[in-house]
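Format notes (please read before filing issues)

Several people have asked whether sequences and structure tokens are stored in separate files. They are not. Every record keeps both together, in the order shown below: the sequence lines, then the token lines. Line labels are part of the format and must not be stripped during preprocessing.
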Amino acid sequence: MMLKKQTVWLLTMVSLVVVLSVYYVLSPGQQASPSLDENTDMVIGDEEWVGLDEDEIEVSANSVGDDELFEALRMELQDERNALKEQLETQVASSELTSAEKNDAYTAMEELTKVQSKEAMVETIITTMGYEDALVRTDGDRVTITVKSDDHSRETANELIQLGRKEMGESKFVFVEFEPVE
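Then the structure lines:
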């Protein structure tokens, strides 16, 4: 009985991902794989950033023609993570893996969920600070915070870096990108 429920759930999730992917690819006015990293200068942060000289920090504003870029990136990231979760769930349910391998897969699923929660929390904190929108992405030891704001000073970048390090972990390298409000 449990195997049937898992199979139905897995097929439902795969179908949903396929439908969303087709919609995303075929929807007019959106790129197939938008990326903020193209032609973007980043601010790299760690605990040494407080009080750095003007030439040690580079802050730039980039023009993005699509107001829905943040949402598209969120959807793309969510699709990738859902696929990873499905893969990990398959490993946990597999009868061919050892219990240690299953435990590793389960731990990875828990870590992924924890990272997603932290990212959402940081995005909420940033928007409550008065920014129009924020996108937080974690990839290993790297955290990228993209903020929609016309204010892009050293102090602002440093404040966001410190927030990212506090919430995501002191050992993380925090990068800040500014996107102008359109």
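For reference, the curators noted about this record: The helical segments are 2-26, 69-93, 99-128, 154-168. The two ends are 53 Å apart (CA to CA).
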